[in-house]
Predict the 3D structure of the following.
Amino acid sequence: MRFRLETKTIARFEASQLRRVNFLFVVIVLFSAIAIGRLFHKAIIEHSYYLNLAKSQRELVREIPANRGEIVVEEEGRDFPLATNITQNTLTVIPNHITEPKKVAKELAVFVGKKPEELEKLFATSKLYIPPLKKRLTDEESEAIKKLDLEGVMLVPEQYRFYPEDRLASTVLGFVDTDKKGQYGVEGYFDKILRGTFGMVKGEKDSSGKSIAVAATSQENPKDGGTVVLTIDRAVQDFVEQKLRAAVERFSAKSGSVIIMDPYTGRIISMASMPDFDPNNYGDIKDYNAFTSQAISSAYEPGSIFKVITMAAALNENTVQPDTTGVFDAYVEVDGQKIYTAIKQAYGKETMTQVLENSDNVAMVWVIQKLTRDPFYRYLRSFGFGVQTGLEMENEASGFVKDKHNLPELDFATTSFGQGIMVTPIQFVTALAAFANGGKLVQPHIIDKIIQQDGREIVTQNKVIREVISPKTAQQIGEMMVSVVENGHGKAARVKGYNVAGKTGTAQVADENGAYSYSKHIGSFGGFAPLENPKFAMLVRLDEPKGVSWAEESAAPLFGEIADFMLKYYQVPPTK
Amino acid sequence: MQYITVALIALASLFYLTQSGRVAQKGEQINALQEKQEQLQAENDRLKVEAARLMSLKSIKENAKVKEMVPPSEVNYLPEAGNVASK
């Protein structure tokens, strides 16, 4: 009986044990399945995420910025930078690393220009990051802050563009914006070359984030930007800017520009525009037009200065000679409209030289009608009007030449004295250079060479685009322009002891209603000197000068003043 | 035999530890030298900028000696004919 009872108890106990084992087995299987599932999820599905996480904990990837190339001018074999780089510190704080906010706020307030209470309020945040307190600290400020040795305060070095000559040639240079991108001028045009390419260092870091120097690293060095060498002469540029600024102020002109070119090579010796700007503080500018060089980006109706182009074309076609004579009235009627001389009086009997001296509109209509439409337009294109010159700067305008086929006779007639055509100063000075160099249109350029970081040099070659007029015509038009300066409207451009060739242009500008204004004009003067062996071709332009009616009172004296300096600067002995 | 094994393991551990220490020390030295190089580079850049500033026309014009200079009132040129210099 007892035995039977024990057997029953054992059997019950075993059944219970089996149930427990089975239960445990199911639990283990379930947990294993969950564990395997999680493992699969982490190791297979989220593999790349965890791999990157692990890498980021030990891997160090750092960008090495490239130094932006300099923009320099060369003088006697030495480089003088107009644009270079400067490293300045940025003052920044990590709020939750600051142990003594009151002290930090009090010490930094003087550097930041804020009250200590304001700074303290700024530090009372749970954010890891707040914007920098001050950028571009001076060396003295950086040293003083370093000495304070404040917890949670950091000085982060950053590279900035620096223009040691301040405003000098600012409209040629442009500037570099906060994204380190070149804007306007040479900075904009050559941004890719100047910027270079950044490098990269890959290695391992320790728990404090410091690089483990002996661990395996790979480094791709940055390629610094190339150096751009300009053709600009610093001394001439400085003188021209001084004189142009003074003239713009004296005549309360809206703007002004001067270009000086070597007529044989096309090298730009000086290019100045007013208003200009300080590229070190370009954000202070109010008129954004100051960023662009008016000398290349602003096309205008040239007015009477254009008469030399029409006359040169007619001379080259043998339509007229300098001593060809005509008798001209106070006006000429074209398409039923009367075109008057500027003084509304007849000049009577004139040679072609006198036509330029008197700047006679009526006689110029006679010249262009003798020349006829097709040859005239061929010369316009040949001189490069209506297309960009290709100068290596941003925002060059192409000007505007009307379609000759649909042009009314009246418009054709007025083009002879520079109305109904738009030109840029750079186009016009290039045309003047052709008069000075014996008739060749040269490629204007402001880049002498680009020196790449590996030392290779890309030198700009002087280039003759085409022969526009014969050497004989160039000589004739040059002599006629000297006569304009000696006997005509260009007397203010005379330089004692030299034959200066030049021509004035007083161009009317449109008023608010689209009609020609009686009160506003653009005064320009273009020419070259000395006639015998020209050293430079120059164009001076003043927009809306006040208190004067003609370019001979505004642009011509400025031309004369600069020409006098240039002839002395280049030590050109007197020619007469 | 057991003692020899323990001694070998101890020696290997000691060697590993000394090498690790040396590697860490060299690493520190390299980091310090890199920092020094960066500092010298920054100083070089600063001096270059200072040189550019001093060579600028603005600085030259502000120079006391230059301020005393006056432009020439008249420029004379010698005629080229004949010898202009004697031996």
User: Anything to note?
Assistant: Chain A has a mean pLDDT of 91. The longest helix of chain A spans residues 2-45.
